[in-house]
Amino acid sequence: MSSLLKLIQNENMKIYYRIGTWVMVILLLIAVIGMGIFVKTTSDENDNWQVAVQTDIKRLQAQKEKTESFKFMNEEVLKSYDRQIEIKEYRLANNIPPLPADSFWGFINESSNLTSFVTLFTIVIAAGMVASEFSWGTIKLLLIRPVSRSKILLSKYLSTLLFAFSLLAVLFLSSALTGGLLFGFDSVSQPHLTYTDGAVKEVGMLQNMIGIYGLNSVDLVILSTFAFMMSSVFRSSSLAIGLSIFLMFIGPQISNLLRNYEWSKYILFANTNLRQYIDGIPFMEGMTMTFSISVLIGYFVIFVSLSWLAFTKRDVTA
Amino acid sequence: MMRKNEPIVQIKNLSKKINNKTIIDDLSFELFPGEVYGFLGPNGAGKTTTIRMMVGLMEATKGQVFIKGQSIQKDFKNAIAEVGGIVENPEMYKFLSGYKNLVHYSRMVKGVSKERIDQVVQLVGLENRIHEKVKNYSLGMRQRLGLAQALLHSPSLLILDEPTNGLDPSGIHEIRNYLRKIAHEDGVSVLVSSHLLSEMEMMCDRIAIIQNGKLIDVQTVDDFVGRDLQVKGRFTVVPVDKAKTILETAYQDKKIEVKEDIIALDIEKEDVPAVVSLLVKNDIRIYSVQANAMTLEEKFLEVTGGNQIV
Ligand SMILES: Nc1ncnc2c1ncn2[C@@H]1O[C@H](COP(=O)(O)OP(=O)(O)OP(=O)(O)O)[C@@H](O)[C@H]1O
Ligand SMILES: [Mg+2]
Questions:
Q1: pLDDT for A150 beyond 90
Q2: pTM for the full model?
Q3: Which bound ligand lies closest to the C-alpha atom of B308?
């Protein structure tokens, strides 16, 4: 066990002693601060939120009626309208204003979209994890130690995940700090409204944010694992980065295009966004959270097995 | 030379095929404690491939490698724990300092203290530059750092693929002396590969010649360059044609060359008087006789067929 920790220590040393890693961290910080400044300068003062919410409700009702008149309407879409309307009515009834982007929690919520940067940077690290050792030639010295290849691979994988979650923590903390400094901490104690089991409920905002980050990290973990697998299988970091980023951007579009085919629900990208089951519309009627999680686990097992086979069974000719 | 009975390394019928091409063909040899074993062969002979199989980087197609009696294939961790090595170039993490590189490898074995790291650094003479990033190192300094990481855990077998590549003459001298010292004094077995013949001659106790993946010959260095074995005989004689015919009849398996009035053939030193008396008996006038021991280089070229050496 302690030998695994030492291996992870080694991998971390190799990640954090490279300038490229710190460039990525700084880019992430710049993105958060930039976003803060953008929100600050573009937000307009609107002190009568009740009026705004009422207009929103009217707009949603109109859209709902329009949808109902369609022949092939989707039940899920209607339900989604109902949920939104009910939450907004709850706001009016209980005097809970919605969170604008220029508030503490509002900004954190807004900047959680920057997890795609975290995913991008983690892909770059994951793609180099195995492949770089081959291109540096250091793999030959790494593998002639009294440590099994499986353990070395595991330490590399865990270090990748550690990097991913550290970057996620950097995103959260820098967003909180930027949000607080730019917009004040006034809204800190405000609750978040969710719609569960047919009723509107109040939950803590922190809990809600952790939920959002948790769901975002599903995408993060699965794409990083994919990049890690590519790295191990092809022993080329550029190929691993290229393919993973290509899939990250194109994957969701492709699965949307194939939505009419029943089997498309098994595509990885139809399942990575678990928020679709919480406050969105499922990719396909009949898909559930359990289904998506099972599909994700399936992909995960395949990625990990391929990485392992490629790393432990093949000759090292670098 | 010290030679205890138990070999440190046993290679048994090792073969490697890649894409149906036989790269290593039925190699068998043993290394004993306290000897420096040279692996000599032209480019592409299969030296590095053999080393890769010995350290488990490549799977052997056939055959076995035992290190201190433990199979590298079946008992990798125990077998490799006895080995320190460099395979091809000493490639290190360039963005880390030399010292951090050593710390990195020390974390992968048990029982390497900070003191041991400092000791090894001193041993390879890098103490002034060890905290600099490896990307600023010269090739020779990297070679030294490579040796340092191989020695870190005090292995019983040191495998070095072309260790003197890139070293200056004094560095070569140092390493050569050091390798001989740890072999002869501490009983470490050292396997060095090279195609630098003069190098091997000075460094090794035994030399194995490998060509096209086959082990052609294993000899102790003394035998190899031994004065009492093969010599290049040169006889200045008149008439040269008659002498050639006589010698061709007497030594049918030898290659006999004639250049002007000199007749040359490779023979055992012991046979020189016999050749002389044979020529005298047949009324050949002999003006001079030369019998020079073959250099290792000549021997090597003879064994490998020449030309392919770099
Ligand atoms: N991965 C590989 N795929 C195919 N052929 C290979 C591979 N690795 C080595 N070879 C071939 O095996 C033979 C032996 O190569 P090896 O590197 O072991 O030679 P070497 O004796 O170390 O040569 P050098 O003195 O140049 O270092 C060469 O003919 C080489 O082309
Ligand atoms: Mg070689």
A1: yes
A2: 0.85
A3: 1
- Range(s) for CATH 3.30.70.100 in chain B? 230-293
Q: How far apart are CA B23 and CA B25, in angstroms?
A: 6
Distance CA A51, CA A47 (A): 9
| pLDDT at residue B3 in the model | 47
Residue A167, min C-alpha distance to chain B (Å) = 22
pLDDT exceeds 90 at position A220:
yes
CA of residue B107 to ligand 1 center, whole Å = 31
CATH topology of domain B9-222: Rossmann fold (3.40.50)
Question: Residue B57 is nearest to which of A3, A140, A146, comparing CB atoms?
Answer: A140
Amino acid at B115: E
CATH no. of B230-293: 3.30.70.100
Q: What would the pLDDT profile of A258-285 be if each residue is shown by its tens digit?
A: 988 889 999 999 998 888 887 777 888 8
Tell me the C-alpha to C-alpha distance, in Å, between residue A133 and each of A235, B146, B274.
9, 16, 63
Q: Where in chain B is the domain with CATH 3.40.50.300?
A: 9-222
Q: Which residue among A19, A145, A317 places its CB closest to the CB of B80?
A: A145
